[in-house]
Amino acid sequence: MDWPPPSRRMSTTRREQNLALLGALASGAVIAVALVLLLLSRANPEGSARLRGTAIDLVAPVWSVVRVPFDLVGTGLGYVGDYIGAASRNRDLEKLTAEQARALQTQAAIKSENQQLRSLLKVVTPERKVIASARIAGASSGGVVRSAVVSAGSDSGVTVGQPVRVAAGLVGRTVEVGSSATRVLLLTDANSRIPVTIVRTGQSALVVGASRALVEVRERVGAETPLVAGDRLVTSGDGGVFPPGIPVAVVVNGGQEPPLARPFVNPAGLGMVLIESAYLPVPATVPVDANTVAVPREAGGGRAKPSIITSTPRATASALPPPPPPPVTAPVVTATPAAPALKFHPKAMNVPLAAPVLSPTDNGRLSAPADAPAAPPQ
Amino acid sequence: MNRTAPYRLMSREERIDWWAGQWRRTLPGLITLGLVVLMTAPIFAPLPLMPQLGLLGVFIWATFQPAMMPPWLAFVIGIVSDLLFGLPLGVNATLLPLTAMFVRGFEARFGHHVYRFDWVMLAAVALVYQVLGWQAARFAGNATGFAPLLVQWLTTVAAYPAVVTLCAALQRRFIGPRS
């Protein structure tokens, strides 16, 4: 006797086939969802900011704890290393101190002179403020992203786009913020762009990362002046994130194009970093209602589509027997009643006076008269 | 794991044992997540020397226990990796399930192989993974050169024996000697 019966075995096989089919469908769905996520992150890179903040919040405490014994060992080795060659180093340092004491006197004179000149010129220097000092607690050291995770977040007042530095120089800037951890984009990341000044020549340039130890000096103003090895690059203050004067990198080979530079700060040896407030943050833009503000056509302002709006009444007039009350399109600009609604004078917006100016109509939409020459509002 | 009898035919003790052993199903996923977290260690080498441990975990568990590393689990691990590494969401989330699917299909078709062959397979899979990951990151706005990714590919291939030894030990200890 055949047991279990063959029909049952057949159904088992079919069941397996169905399960395999379902599995393949599920796998396909998973891949499709992942591809949609990739598409979304291209369209809106900031979409997952909150999730990212949570992720680094979870992982930073782990490394804060794990790195403690390693830090202790490192500190101990440092103490031992300090005793090796201490005498000769002491002699060198004493010589250096004597030299620097002389330089310091000159600097004091220069500093007071500088202060006088600044007060004469009424120079306003933005206040620099340390937001938080944080321990490095994580990294992303893959081929695509070079970043560090530090253990201070929005609870300490950290936001996206703040400079991160140590005494020796610039580390990077904050890009993702959790409540107690922050991701710092390092200078060596391929997406990092630091506006710098070359101290010797005064040229401005950009320091661009390349996912390796050295960074590239690009977009140099006056590229015909060659850089030499040893040229120091400091932040220029352009862009408003980094305060001017923070050491960034030193050029290692000037003849090459683009010149390569070595960052002053290697995050490998860092324990704590400082997060400063952005130097001159972009002011929060006042939300402007497009319906109440006149926008010159040249500025490509808003959703002005004159041809559609002006053609609509004509079409309705011919189609419908009782013509609707004509929408007030023609006198919108020439009419003085519209003038008080204008918040910006065309002249103030650097627009030629003859240019047609859009202004609100009764139906609340922007309209531009194609036929009526514009006159400046009173 | 190895259910010798249908559930209804088990004695009470057998059922308790069976339920108590269920956590082992999560082992491959947990180990791979642990490897992904290990990749966020605060180590700053001048070159990207950190191996793709998440890829290694998915590859190895898809060969050892295909049923415990389904593509949806690899997808979850991929999402976590993208969030932890600061990559555009979707890079690892696409590539890790593809890896799991590929390994599963390959094993089902051609069966198991000797160790060295798996290593060569991993080298090929990791290279394709790096190329596709490079292009996916570029698509999502993180353009880089490919040379650093080649370095990472080399370290990934070099790290395979250590990770496979660890995973094999865990499999033998907790899941069973047979795969």
Molecular structure report:
- The complex is a heterodimer of chains A (378) and B (179).
- In chain A, the strands form 3 sheets. In chain A, strands 1-2-5-4-3-12 form a 6-stranded antiparallel beta barrel.
- Chain A has helices spanning 6-43, 49-83, 86-121, 306-319, and strands at 130-141, 146-150, 163-166, 169-177, 182-186, 193-198, 204-208, 215-218, 232-235, 247-253, 260-263, 272-276, 359-360, 366-367.
- Mean pLDDT of chain A is 76; it is low at 295-378.
- In chain A, 31% of the residues are buried.
- Chain A is globular and about 90 Å long.
- Helix content of chain A is 33%, strand content 20%.
- Chain A is an alpha+beta fold.
- Among the domains of chain A are: 130-276, Rod shape-determining protein MreC, domain 1 (Thrombin, subunit H); 289-303 and 334-378, no CATH class.
- In chain A, a hairpin with a 4-residue loop joins strand 1 and strand 2 (146-150).
- Chain B is elongated and about 60 Å long.
- Chain B has one domain (26-175): Arp2/3 complex 21 kDa subunit ARPC3 (Orthogonal Bundle).
- Chain B has 179 residues and is mainly alpha-helical.
- Chain B contains 7 helices and no strands.
- In chain B, helix 2 (27-38) packs parallel to helix 4 (71-85).
- The termini of chain B are close together.
- The model of chain B has no long low-confidence stretch (mean pLDDT 88).
- The chains are: A alpha+beta (378), B mainly alpha (179).
- Chains A and B meet through helix 1, helix 2, strand 1 and strand 2 of A and helix 4, helix 5, helix 6 and helix 7 of B.
- Chain B: It holds the Pfam family MreD.
- Chain B: Keywords: Cell membrane, Cell shape, Membrane, Transmembrane, Transmembrane helix.
- Chain B: InterPro entries: Cell_shape_determining_MreD.
- Chain B: Its main location: membrane.
- Chain B: It is a multi-pass membrane protein.
